[in-house]
Design goal:
The mean pLDDT is 96. Helix content is 43%, strand content 18%. The longest helix is centred in the last third of the chain and has 17 residues, at 163-179. The chain contains six helices and six strands, in the order H-E-H-E-H-E-H-E-E-H-E-H. Strands 2-1-3-4-5-6 form a six-stranded mixed β-sheet, sandwiched between helices. With 184 residues, the protein is of the alpha/beta class.
């Protein structure tokens, strides 16, 4: 949820049209609601469009949804599906607009296109879970890990994102790590 929240803040801050979009794989993804809430926290006048691909890797459908969004004036897209995010980023780059990367730091796909990325450091998560298991501390059920566990972060920022905003959001991430409270 929090990674989407901070990604949404960046998207709303950088949108020139106040129209941002999410191309999600599934409705149950917590980062989608987080993105919406973060965009609203940054700019209450932001319109957030959310479309669903229905799976993790339908590149054709995801790129078509991106085209439709851009045709409607959406200028920042969050492709929240690791099987199709790269083709969506490449398509958005062709149109000269922005994205928030997903799962890994995707700034290498274009610093002027990728504003930042919501990074899931799955390798570190595996180490944490294995360590908990080895110590007999691993609980059963669905477990959540977050910024406080150092397995979620934002990636490198585009040079297009102003330094004052980067300082502001980094401070808010630090506050969230300490308190568990997202900005309002």
């Amino acid at each position: 949820h929090a990674m989407g929240f901070f990604g949404g803040m960046v998207a709303a801050h950088m949108s020139k049209t106040q129209n941002v979009g999410v191309i999600a794989a599934y409705e149950w993804q917590p980062e989608i609601e987080g993105f919406y809430q973060g965009a609203m926290a940054e700019n209450k006048n932001t319109n957030v469009s959310i479309e669903y691909v229905g799976n993790w890797d339908d590149e054709i459908k995801a790129v078509q949804l991106a085209n439709d969004m851009m045709d409607k004036g959406i200028d920042v897209i969050y492709p929240a599906g690791d099987g199709y995010n790269v083709p969506v980023i490449e398509r958005v780059k062709e149109r000269g607009l922005y994205v928030i990367g997903y799962v890994s730091d995707q700034s290498d796909l274009g610093e002027s296109t990728v504003l930042t990325s919501t990074v899931q450091q799955v390798d570190l998560l595996y180490e944490i879970v294995a360590g908990q298991y080895n110590k007999g501390l691993l609980k059963s059920g669905n477990l959540s890990y977050d910024f406080q566990d150092n397995v979620i972060s934002l990636g490198k920022y585009s040079p297009n994102v102003n330094k004052e905003f980067i300082q502001k959001i980094n401070k808010q991430i630090d506050i969230y790590k300490e308190t568990g409270k997202l900005p309002k």
